[in-house]
Task: structure prediction
Amino acid sequence: MNRDRSELAELQQQAKTRQNIVDAITHQFAAEDEALQHAMRAAKQAGLPEIQISPIQGKLLQLLAVTCNAQKILEIGSLGGYSGIWLARALPNSGRFITLEINPTHAEQVRNAFEHANVSDRADVRVGKALDLLPQLENEAPFDLIFIDADKPPYPQYLDWALRLSRPGSIIVADNCIRSGKGFEEPQDQGMAGIVAYNKRIASDPRLISLDLAMDDDYTDGFAISVVRW
Ligand code: SAH
Ligand code: DHB
Ligand code: MG
Result:
């Protein structure tokens, strides 16, 4: 009994420590400015789901964009433009950011958020089903960084398109690839089937070097990061 209680206290302390670490890293390396906070607030007010990336993930996307000297970035799944602002800001003035969004209401939020963040000159939201829009991007390829964060069942198809629209040295990132470990188990639904297949593909495709990084939601979810080999 006493032993259970002290074990519980220790687990609670560890969870608190992890949260403190996330808060400190966010504060020191990934603080949101007014435009990012505005995008979050506006999305919430419009009733959009609160499923945007975390500030630490936003900063990691910027770090990866600079790593591959990104001039052109593609995102699949815009929501309210929160991740889009992080990504568009990693580009030089001459850069291009294209984000694909199926929901016209979301897309309108994205346009406003980009306007407010002063990235409309380089950032473009295209409205439609990603699998219909991707073939139209071939003449704008290659993209240096591709961020996949839309519906989960077609993740493997999004990977095919990412490979088609990239170059050696491009970086492909996919959100939600861990899902409390379900990303590596026998899938129970179509969404998880997409993610499990995605993880298997990136782990074994000889064109890629890849790693899943547990970093979000108390280290229970996170990005899959792949680099297209030279
Ligand atoms: N990247 C965003 C979060 C995206 S949430 C951020 O971190 O800020 C997923 C988004 O993908 C939602 O806005 C949803 O409407 C969109 N989406 C879902 N299915 C889609 C599809 N087939 N094609 C394009 N967008 C899709
Ligand atoms: C969901 C989707 C996401 O892209 C995410 O980051 C979190 C949750 C969802 O559909 O529930
Ligand atoms: Mg996501």
In short: The two ends are 58 Å apart (CA to CA). The pocket of 3,4-dihydroxybenzoic acid (ligand 2) is lined by residues 51, 149, 175-176 (CB under 6 Å). The beta strands are 72-76, 96-101, 123-127, 145-148, 171-174, 208-216, 221-228. The chain is about 45% helix and 20% strand.
